[in-house]
Amino acid sequence: MGVLGSRGNRAAAGAALRPEDRSVVEEAVRQALDDSDVRAVLTTDPTGRTGSRLLRQALDDAEEIAAAAGEEYRVYLTARTATRIARSAPRGGMPGVRSTLRDALAVVVPLVSAAAAALLLLTGYGLRLADTAAGPASTLVTAGWLLALVAAATACYGLQRLLRTVLNRRKGAPGGGGLTAERAREQWLRALMDKGVLPYLRHHLPAGHPGAPDATKTTTTTTRTKTAAERDDTRVGQSE
Predict the structure, then answer these.
(1) 86 touches 170 (CB < 8 A)
(2) 48 CB-near residues (< 8 Å, 6+ apart)
(3) N-to-C CA span, the chain
(4) Among 68, 153, 195, 204, which residue's beta carbon has the most beta carbons within 10 A?
(5) How far is the C-alpha of 42 from the C-alpha of 64, rounded, in Å?
(6) In which band, very low, low, confident or very high, does the pLDDT at 51 lie, cut at 50, 70 and 90?
(7) Rounded to two decimals, what is the model's pTM?
(8) What is the C-alpha separation between 67 and 4, in angstroms, rounded?
(9) Quick check: 47 and 106 in contact, CB under 8 A?
(10) Helix pair angle (181-191, 70-87), 10° resolution
(11) What does 183-209 look like in DSSP terms, one character per residue?
């Protein structure tokens, strides 16, 4: 009861176990049953009832077991949510088609505009040098410079999109300023096993086994804790 209570208090600092992650905890419990300390107890019962009882009890207390690694679980949920947001498409109708179209235009428009601007400027200045068709020559030169401006503007836009894509990928890369969901999950699973599953199973082993908690030590520790608390209360009463 004390073990479950302390774990329940840790849940306040962490995050409650979500339904989709309960199967992960259950799988960790089944793996932990193969631990050397736990297996040594289970093999002493030829009927297998001890193992079945311990498994059922651990599965019923999955939330309490997971609470022991609540802080690591909270970090994992944060990283997982961030990864999902980064991978999700922007809002709006047909977001993938729109994004692809913008990327294509950012590449094609500067090239076409630059080529057309070069052609118009060469033709216009050529007519000016030849002193023929001065009116059309000025029109061609003006159109050429306008297309040159369009090419420059679209090229800047394409460069800006390229830089934004590189920065977004760098932020999402391992070591890019945040913990990835995969690494956070590994840390949570390690903490779940070391802080939650194995201590729980060992605590609920049949009494008298080396892997089980010593009842005498537990009683002595509890008595010392109560005595210290009573002394503190006496001191507070005297000071008042």
Answers:
(1) no
(2) 42
(3) 34
(4) 68
(5) 23
(6) confident
(7) 0.50
(8) 9
(9) no
(10) 160
(11) HHHHHHHHHIIIIIIHHHHHHTSPTTS
The domain limits of the chain are 2-87+178-215, 100-172
Rounded Cα–Cα distance for residues 63 and 22 (Å): 8
Task: Report whether pLDDT(72) > 90.
Answer: yes
- To the nearest 10°, the Cα dihedral for 153, 155, 157, 159? -150
Angle at 47 between CA 46 and CA 49, to 5 degrees: 125
Nearest to 152 by CA among 140, 142, 141, 160: 160
Give dist(CA 87, CA 82) in Å, integer: 9
The tokens describing 47, both together, are: 């009927």
Q: Measured in whole angstroms, how far is the alpha carbon of residue 132 from the centre of its chain?
A: 69
Q: For residues 188 and 202, give the distance between their C-alpha atoms in angstroms, rounded to a whole number.
A: 20
Both tokens assigned to 209: 């086994």
Mean pLDDT throughout 206-229?
45
Neighbouring residues of 231: CB distance < 8 A, sequence distance ≥ 6: none
* pLDDT, tens only, 159-172: 888 888 777 666 55
Measured distance CA(138)–CA(129) in Å, rounded: 12
Structure tokens at 88: 């999700």
Q: 3-state DSSP call for residue 179?
A: coil
Could you tell me where the DSSP H helices lie in 68-214? 70-87, 95-130, 134-172, 181-191, 198-203
Instruction: State yes or no: pLDDT of 175 exceeds 50.
Output: no
